[in-house]
Write a structure and sequence with these properties.
Chains A, B: It holds the Pfam family Peptidase_S46. Chains A, B: InterPro entries: Pep_S46 (IPR019500), Peptidase_S1_PA (IPR009003), Peptidase_S1_PA_chymotrypsin (IPR043504). Chains A, B: Catalyzes the removal of dipeptides from the N-terminus of oligopeptides. Chains A, B: Keywords: Aminopeptidase, Hydrolase, Protease, Serine protease, Signal. 2 copies of one chain form a homodimer. Chain A is about 50% helix and about 15% strand. By secondary structure, chain A is α+β, with helices and mostly antiparallel strands. Chain A folds into 3 domains: about 15-95 and about 170-240 and about 540-620 and about 645-670, Thrombin, subunit H; about 100-165, no CATH class; about 245-530, no CATH class. In chain A, helix 16 runs antiparallel to helix 18 (about 450-460). The first copy, chain A, is globular and about 65 Å long. Chains A and B meet through helix 8, helix 9, helix 10 and helix 16 of A and helix 8, helix 9, helix 10 and helix 16 of B.
């Protein structure tokens, strides 16, 4: 039996934990991990590690903040940031922390609202019930509370998650990129590893450090081989309960084209960054994201092409399908979701390219830049805010408006040359993917080349200015209609077509897929009982496991690296070049201090920044990656070689004290308060 | 019944042609098409279209020549080239034409030589017999003759192809890139289409235009809808006879990673070319090649993920496999090639990344640039030339040495900044794909970054100079060993490892795959008889068909476009910008002149530049592309929508006379001689 599973806190596998490790969590222990763990709304995990709002997460989860607070010649992303005094802690424009308050089962309500409905009807009904539940949960104070209806077990269960929001989040410390991401893309998802992938934030309330009595005490030593470990965080998504027909479509229809698109963008950004230090900085955040995604896609594609995996998956599907059709009662109860699923996937193949280009914004650089996203958000928000809450697109429901406004008001730097380059390329992709004879392409480009249009849009827009965005936000539909901003006009122009393809995709693909998955999931429950954990949904999960290496091609990989190994691996050339701080500190550091370690905890993207804790609820490490075998974890957990990779708390303390000379932070970590 | 098939001239489907079209080719007709059609050794087709060595092919088949003869501010690739007088026809450094003289069946000899051998033994034996057959065929005059042993029917048959070589090939005329490739990448593989993708070469012998009495007379009108058409050319390769297990490995193990690699390079080159006109020119040839490849890969991946295709393929395999095992005699005769094939594919998955990076040279920019290729060729040639012919790597057998020498001596421009950029990127890929801890990667990079090493290699090498290459070629092993050129040293350094992975790949993958395919192909013959055509092998094939449109989403696509449509499609912005010559000539041109047309001839890459001829053996068009549905033609021919795309001879004549004012060329075309 493997240490498999990403468990919700209200359904922990207490029996397995007791049997395998002789450990049963107390209610206090569970309460602690729930409140000390945080979700970074943009897609990571963090945890409180002092009573005064100190948050530990990854350097790579602080990328946006580090880029955004760098002004002029400053480059905090590369050079790190140290707040020597508390007053030096700058606000991160875009970071929001969510602290889970409660989980309420709302399966009955959701099922009642959607019963018997399909397609567009179902989308509408689900949107309405979600909105109703979320509004009542937020209870008029969306600045403080955030509520999300979460689909668990692919629709086997629905739950209402209520979070406390922290929107005033400031930066305390981040090391240099070259030590945080030592080894760069070559070492990413590999082990042995030597990264200090850490950043510390602080949550503020009313301009003062937040009071956070529930936090993980910081273990100065880190764990030992064989120790039981827990990872508490927000794994983003997994597809382990998904039938093969859906995974096959995911591979062929979605993943492969996206892999090509991102690879192309990677090459573009690589070359863009060679033009100089400023260009390298402009492209840095997108490059990091894309290189990481491509490595993940590679891992997924490998698993999804693995004959053994595919055969096993097909067998499981066939046996469930057989079971569902074995009696007249079951046939009546379940119908034939398998055929529905297949039809939905075929429809997905027809719609996906258009959906990606228009609604996902790949054709307008909504993914690689800022400007078009502002335009679209303003245009959509103006239209949506005039509708009743339950009829809005989910992003614009009252519960989400504070986050939208926050993004629009944040003073994120916009790089015009970068935006123009990426927009030109995106418009080329729009034309390439939809075809030069497509009416929307004709309408957008007219007689202009992508390059000409991009130049005109970026030089003409005012949307880089937060004040202009604020005006348009406050002015609502009238201001949008009156605007002469070329990007606002473009967003308005494509909006009907973009909404149409979204609606078609949701009605013909998402809704029937969800319904079929739900039916299949329910049948699996009826047959097997609810003995397992739900697929990951970027909500709080606990995984248990131990510190343990693995075997690679017959050779054992030990679970720890140390500071001595870091200095041995350094070459002086990127990405194996140490920052000056580490070069200078070498003599002061204990070479035997553990640096990174691996555990067999079952984690996935979104767990980045999660604390690794021990039986006492003390932080002993900081998750920042998985090994290469962990990538298949999206689809199946293999305990023999799937490993989580963490920074040891020992190296965190050693480096904060001796490399960065920050007694203030070191003391707060060891004492648990300011 | 569809107009399927790429037939060898010694096994034409005379019955089908007679039944479907009432046409039976005479021996004279066959003799004409064999000698008028040419192979461009680099990978295209051409044809003689006058008695004085005038050759018609595509502009995109003349890309290398146009780049290579452009010097200083000249850019013949973009601006076209016109030789007003015969003395103005410049030599294309790298073009070699092959004219097929004879096909000799050598199945018995090859089978006898390889009987009972497997793995490395088999590779060696086949190399030895091929060398022996080719040498005896060339008979000491490799400057005039070229002989290749060709594997047909996946090993069901072997044939010795003897060609007359033309190495003095000069450029007569090429139009501007913007009309040759009007619509650029967006229109590539699409229709309606408006391209003048033509170039004319002339073959010279002893510094005089070659005498070529067998040529295609040039039809001034082009064909009509429904006319029977033939395409005679050199389709590069198809995989129609290949079992599914091999195609699945092709998709997952080879195609998908390569698709990512080329996509990345595409983005890099896109951005590289934006730096200025000079950089755009430097990147142009590679960009063209890569964009085209990516579109092809997209088509392949679509077919290889098409459920109907996969199911049909699996069924065909299963039925043949069953037939092969149905009697004890058959089991003894055929053994179990299916399992062998599967093992070979598994081994391929283990070796392919290393093989691509080292031996295919992706890790050293052997694909995107010139310099490392020179180094490797010189290093290999020195070692190989000292061995007996039959023991050499095939590229270095005596029969191939003239082509190798030709490449080394050609004065192809080398762009140092381009080479350095691409080499830096390639070395990064080397490290990424093999891993930072790989011993070869360590050995190559040492403590340097890819960028540092690339800078050092490109600034230090002398190999851009043909005279230096000539010295090293002439000096043989001694000169190579004594050389201090850093690229020669790198090529020497990785050669043992590179040869080793090649040998492993050939022994464990290529040879057993070939043997298994051969056994399966033989079984298919035993069951079905030799009623079909062999998979394409870049050798001369005839396809028959007709001028006909198709239905796209229920709407008919007519088979012709005309000059009027070209002017309507032009926008003034790249890639829909007409060159000045066409803008200025508009008033003079007949708008109803047919421009491009489609036929259902079964063609594939390598057929580029093939003449479309009529029943009389007159040229009526010039193949330059297929429609988007033709891309699946690698694996299966679908007569309902697979279409070849050709330039009409009518527009060729109209434009040569009225746009380019070249009566000399127009007269030669209509009169058939200078």
């Amino acid at each position: 039996m493997a240490d498999e599973g990403m468990w919700t806190l209200d359904h922990l596998p207490v029996k397995q934990m007791q049997q395998r490790y002789g450990f049963t969590p107390t209610p206090q222990w569970i309460d602690l991990v729930q409140h000390a763990a945080l979700r970074l709304a943009e897609g990571c995990t963090g945890s409180f590690v002092s009573a005064n709002g100190l948050v530990m997460t990854n350097h790579h989860c602080a990328n946006s903040c580090l880029s955004q607070i760098s002004k002029g010649h400053e480059d905090y992303m590369s050079n790190g940031y140290i707040a020597l005094k508390q007053e030096d802690e700058p606000k991160c424009p875009d970071v929001e922390l969510n602290q889970l308050q409660s989980i309420t089962d709302v399966t009955t309500q959701v099922n009642a609202a959607t019963a018997g409905k399909t397609g567009a009807e179902r989308v509408k009904a689900e949107r309405a019930i979600d909105s109703k539940l979320e509004q009542s949960c937020v209870n008029g104070d969306a600045k403080t509370w955030r509520c999300d209806v979460v689909t668990l077990y692919n629709g086997g269960r629905y739950a209402l998650y209520k979070y406390r929001r922290y929107q005033d989040v400031r930066l305390v410390f981040a090391p240099e990129q070259s030590i945080a991401f030592f080894g760069g893309d070559p070492d990413n998802f590999n082990f042995p590893r030597y990264d200090l992938d850490v950043a510390f934030f602080r949550a503020y309330v009313d301009n003062k450090p937040a009071s956070t009595p529930q936090f993980f005490k910081f273990s100065p030593q880190g764990p030992k081989a064989g120790d039981m470990t827990f990872v508490i965080g927000n794994p983003g998504s997994t597809q382990r309960g998904i039938p093969w027909v859906q995974l096959a479509a995911m591979r062929d229809v979605r993943l492969v084209p996206l892999f090509g698109l991102l690879s192309e963008m990677r090459g573009l950004l690589w070359q863009y960054g060679r033009a100089g230090a400023e260009q390298a900085k402009e492209a840095q955040e997108a490059r990091f994201y894309i290189e990481n995604s491509i490595k993940v896609f590679n891992g997924w594609l490998q698993t999804l092409a693995d004959e053994n995996f595919v055969e096993q998956k097909k067998k499981q599907d066939a046996s469930l399908r057989e079971w569902m059709a074995a009696t007249p009662e079951r046939r009546t109860k379940y119908g034939d979701p398998w055929t529905d699923l297949q039809h939905a996937q075929q429809r997905s193949a027809e719609l996906i390219a258009r959906y990606n280009m228009l609604e996902q914004g790949f054709g307008f650089n909504e993914r690689g830049g800022e400007l078009f996203g502002y335009a679209r958000t303003l245009v959509r928000a103006a239209a949506e805010r005039s509708k009743p809450d339950g009829e809005r697109l989910p992003d614009f429901r009252d519960a989400n408006l504070p986050a939208v406004e926050h993004t629009l008001e944040s003073n994120v730097p916009v790089y015009p040359h970068y935006e123009q380059t990426l927009l030109s390329w995106s418009l080329e992709k729009l034309r390439q993917v939809l075809g030069a004879d497509d009416p929307t392409v004709h309408e957008v480009l007219g007689k202009q080349s992508p390059d000409q249009l991009a130049q005109q849009l970026v030089s003409g827009t005012q949307l880089a200015d937060p004040a202009v965005r604020k005006q348009l936000w406050d002015g609502g539909e009238k201001a949008i209609e009156a605007s002469n901003d070329p990007l606002i006009k473009l967003a308005l122009q494509i909006d009907p077509e973009s909404r149409q393809v979204r609606k078609a995709y949701e009605d013909d693909v998402t809704a029937p897929t969800q319904k079929a998955d739900e039916t299949i999931a329910k049948a699996r429950f009826d047959r097997d009982g609810m003995s397992s954990y739900p697929d990951a949904t970027f909500t709080l999960r606990l995984s248990y496991g131990k510190v343990v290496g693995w075997n690679e091609n017959g050779k054992p990989v030990p679970p720890f690296t140390d500071i001595g190994g870091l200095y041995k691996r350094a070459t002086g050339a990127d990405p194996f070049k140490l920052p000056d701080s580490w070069v200078n500190a070498q003599g002061k550091l204990d070479a035997n201090t553990p640096m990174n370690f691996v555990t067999d905890n079952d984690i996935i993207g979104g767990n980045s920044g999660s604390a690794v804790i021990d039986r006492e609820g003390h932080a002993v490490g900081l998750i920042f990656d998985g090994n290469i075998h962990s990538l298949g974890g999206d689809f199946v957990y293999d305990g023999s070689n799937n490993r989580a990779v963490a920074v040891d708390t020992a190296v965190l303390l050693e480096s904060v004290r001796k490399v960065y000379n920050l007694p203030r932070l070191a003391d707060e970590l060891t004492q648990g308060h300011l």
